[in-house]
Each structure stands twice: as C-alpha cells, then as structure tokens.
Write a structure and sequence with these properties.
Layout lengths: L1 E3 L8 E2 L4 H19 L4 E3 L7 E9 L5 E13 L2 E7 L6 H17 L5 E8 L5 E7 L6 H8 L3 H10 L15 E8 L1 E2 L6 E2 L2 E2 L2 E3 L7 E4 L7 E2 L6 E9 L2 H13 L2 E3 L5 H9 L1 H5 L6 H5 L11 H22 L20 E7 L2 E10 L2 E6 L2 E6 L9 E5 L2 E10 L4 E6 L2 E9 H7 L13 E3 L4 E6 L6 E2 L4 E7 L2 E6 L4 E6 L6 E2 L4 E5 L1
Helix pairs in contact: 5-6
C-alpha cells in the first residue's frame, strides 16, 4: 500500500501488486498528495486483503486523562473512501472492543494527546486487529458516536482546549441503541461506484421531519457543486433502539431526500443498506466490488415491484392528463368546453427496454390499474407539483419522486432509490410511433470521452501514435483525485482534443482513433 504521509480521505493512496503498479502508484500518489495536502511525501505499508475497517474514537485532556468512546464500523468504501458508517460494529465482541479501546487510549496517552481523535484499525476475520493510523481531528462520521454515547464531541473538544479536565470516566461511556451514517455525495454511482458530478442544486429538501433522522450539511438550494472541492452534499444519520430500526429509518430517509440539479449516490446507498449481506453484517472493505463485480446497476426490480412501478407511472400519467383538462373560471367562459369522456385508459409503457400494456381507470384519488391480469389500486393526493409523493399501492406505502414529466410521455421516477425512465403512450400513439425513425447510436469504439468533469493533468499521446488497448491516453483530476483515461482498443491516434490544463466536462471528446 502506497500512501500519502499527510493524507486522508483515500487521497494519495494506491495498492501495488507488481513493479509496474508500484511505479504508477508512486506517480499518482505523489501528485495527488501534493495537490491535496501540499506535501508529496509517501509511506509504504503492508496491504491486508479483505479486512474490516474499524476505528476507535478517543478523547483526551491536558491532565493526562483519556477515554475510548466505542467503535465505528467503516468498511463500506469505494476508492479507499468511506461511504457508510455505523456504531457500534456488529462484528466486535466486548473483549475485542475493550482490547482495541485500551490500545487506542495507550497511544493517545503516549503522545500526550488532548482533544477528540480517532485511532483506525484493520480487523481480519479472526478479530486480529492492526494499527492503521491516527487522525488528530474530528472525523466526518463522529455523529454516530454521539448518538450511541450521548456525548457532544465538539463541546468536549472546546472544554479540553480551554483546559478543563474530562467530565466522564470510562465506566460512564455507554452503548445506547444503534446509529448509521450515509455520506451523500454529488457523484454518479453507475461509474466506478461514484465519479464526481457538478452542477447547481435547483431543489434541495432534507428529510429532517422523520423520527430519528439528523442531517449535517451546509448546502442550500442554488449551491454550486465544483470539481475542485469535496463532492459531499451531506452526512445523513439515523438512530434507533437497535440496528434494524436504524436501517429502516435510513431507508425512509433516503426515499424522502430531495436533491435536484446534480447526480447523487442515493441509489447506491439505499441498495447497500437493504442488501442481505450488509443486513447480516457480512462486510469488508471490498464489499462493493464483491457484491457488484460488474459495477453498480441500480435496484433490480422484482415482478411485484415492476408491477407497482407500472401502476404508479400510469396513474401519474392519467392524473396529469386529467389535470390538463381542468380550466379555471370555466363556468364564466363564453367558449363551451368539451371534455373527452374516457372510462379506461389503454396505455403502452416502455420500461427497461421492455414494452408493457396496462389499462387504468380512476375514481376520485384512487386509480385502478390492470397489469398482466392483476388489478392494483393506487391512491395518493396526486399533488403533481410536490417533490415527494406518498403513494399507496394495495396497502403498501411508497414514497416516490417524479423528477421529470414531458408532454411526449417521457417520465423519470425515483422508486426504491433508483431513477427509472419510462415512456408512456396511449394505445393510438403507440401504434403511430412504430412509423417513427429510430436515432442511430453513436459508435464509441474509436473515441474516448471524459466520464466526468475535471481538469486534464497530463496527455500521453499525440496524433500519429500507435496505442494499445488499456494504454494511458491522459490523466484527469477531479475532486483532487487523479484518474487515468485509457484506450478502449488498439489503433492509431487520429486526433487529440485536449491538453494539460484544460477543463473538461462529462462527455467531452478527448481523443479519436483512425
């Protein structure tokens, strides 16, 4: 493991299995370290495969006292950066917890540490633990510790800095309940579990109205998300009397979180917390790559969930059509208004490249939708202007978000965390659409486009060069992380459309092959 000595947050960190990876790792790690921390010095340590990442919160004063405030489980990571944390860890027993805590306190006392800090460990499957590093600051994930101990860590840090002794002893530190934190990032989770997304927040609504939910964020609607800063939007924390309750509250909180204007990772967060392996506590730092070996693809709908989504989408479509037929002051209008009387709406819905036929009818706020021989009753307030819509489908309560709705029948619906694009047409419109020409997809085999917004740090080829599949073309820096862009196939470079120092957007053309 090659690491930035002044590092943190996964920046300036690379794993090297051979000489070539060591050379590349040294180059990228030193550049990232200089960019992020102003210090390009590196250290090398033994790499431990498939561990858990568990850390101990410590608190020391200027009078020689120090406490350990239990542990945090931080094993769900991507690119060595934490994504989901919880306290306590489902894996540790009291003996291992005490041993780790005592060693963390011994370290703090040895260096006369006075403040809140975190001692991080890697823990193997047999509960052997290995010192990783100490962060001499307040960690992003400190709220989960506050939830289960009842301590305000910021207040304790201020008291210690003023010179007061600690108010508590080790026996005073409890574990009450369970807390989970999800890091909500402005990232595209479908690209390497999260490549940066930039933009301006057009709408932002935190789920703080729900019980047991806390959101730490300085974000407001209209805030700009830039490629030069940390992409974190917020820390979303839920607390419950046990792990099951905390996870259920997190599921509800993610469904009720409104973020518009930038791509975010809520779909990935929600999938992880309901995954059977995660629920059982069978996790390690390779969880994401193990569970999603081909990359994250979003929620995979069951047949019942698919039918629910089709029923909700068709109800939304008909509700919008009925609303469009309403006119204000129509009683006083000199022009007679004739509304079409439609008892049943026969609809064609395209979802995940499959076309489904449904029949919908309505009675007040309830729609009856026939899907594959099943009749589903969908009830809601149908406030189409609201960013959140609470929908009841045959007794099952769902919170959905209709992100976009176009006159041509295209609709984007956030359902169970994942955004689904549906195309809804009436039966007649669907029959006529068969005569429309289809747009030919772009041939991307001979071009390289930027998968994210960022700045070009280096370009390794020029027109006329021969390149092989997997060869580095350029390096793009985003959020102070450097990413190597490689050729998709072997060929001769026809043209290069970027140079070092250029700012590129997602989808910008970087290179063409002949």
């Amino acid at each position: 493991m090659i690491k930035a000595s002044a590092g943190g947050g996964g920046k300036g960190m690379r794993i090297a299995w051979d000489d070539e990876e060591t050379r590349d790792g040294f180059r990228f790690s030193s550049q990232e370290a200089a960019s992020s921390f102003g210090d390009d010095r590196l250290l090398i340590e033994k790499f431990i495969d498939n561990p858990r990442h568990i850390e101990i919160q410590v608190l020391g004063d200027k009078h020689g006292n120090a406490l350990w405030l239990n542990e945090r489980e931080c094993s769900i990571q991507r690119r060595n950066q934490k994504v989901i944390e919880e306290a306590p860890s489902i894996f540790l027993d009291s003996v291992t917890r005490s041993a780790m805590g005592e060693q963390a306190v011994a370290l703090a006392k040895a260096v006369k540490y006075s403040s809140a800090g975190t001692v991080e460990f890697l823990v193997d499957s047999k509960k052997n633990f290995y010192f990783l590093e100490m962060n001499t600051r307040l960690q992003v994930e400190h709220p989960v510790t506050e939830c289960i101990t009842g301590l305000d860590l910021v207040q304790e840090m201020i008291r210690v800095a003023k010179g007061y002794p600690l108010r508590h002893t080790q026996a005073d530190i409890p574990i009450n309940g369970w807390a989970v934190e999800c890091r909500v990032y402005a990232e595209d989770p479908y690209k390497s579990f999260g490549l940066p997304s930039i933009g301006r927040l057009s709408q932002y609504q935190e789920p703080i109205h729900l019980p047991g939910v806390r959101v730490d964020s300085g974000i407001q609607p209209g805030s700009d998300i830039s490629i030069y800063y940390d992409p974190m939007i917020s820390k979303l924390i839920t607390y419950g009397s046990n792990r099951t309750e905390a996870l259920k509250r997190m599921e509800d909180a993610l469904d009720n979180y409104v973020i518009r204007g930038v791509t975010h990772n809520i779909a990935l967060l929600r999938e992880v917390i309901i995954n059977s392996r995660f629920v059982k506590g069978d996790i390690n730092t390779k969880f994401l790559s193990d569970v999603y070996p081909d990359g994250f693809k979003g929620h995979k709908l069951t047949e019942n969930e698919r039918n629910e989504l089709l029923a909700i989408a068709s109800s939304l479509f008909v509700a919008s059509q009925l609303r469009a037929q309403c006119f204000q002051e129509h009683e006083n209008s000199r022009v007679p208004i004739v509304r079409p009387q439609v008892a049943n709406w026969e609809l064609s819905i395209k979802l995940n490249d499959q076309v489904h036929t449904v029949v919908a009818s309505n009675s007040g706020k309830t729609f009856s939708v026939e899907v594959y021989g099943l009749k589903l009753n969908v009830t809601s307030t149908w406030n189409l202007a609201s960013p959140l819509l609470s929908v009841n489908v045959d007794g099952i309560q769902r919170t959905i978000q209709c992100l976009s709705r176009e006159a041509g029948g295209n609709m984007s619906i956030q359902f169970l965390g994942t955004v689904y694009k549906v195309h809804i047409l009436t039966k007649l419109a669907a029959e006529l659409s068969k005569f429309m020409l289809e747009k030919v997809a772009e041939d991307t085999s001979s071009i390289l486009r930027s998968p994210m917004p960022g700045m070009v740090v280096a370009v390794s080829v020029k027109p006329g060069d021969m390149v092989t599949e997997g060869q580095e073309i350029c390096v793009i820096e985003a959020m102070k992380m450097q990413n190597s862009m490689t050729a998709g196939k072997t060929g001769k470079v026809k043209s290069v459309h970027c140079k070092a120092g250029d700012t590129v957007g997602e989808g910008d053309l970087l290179m063409e092959l002949q």
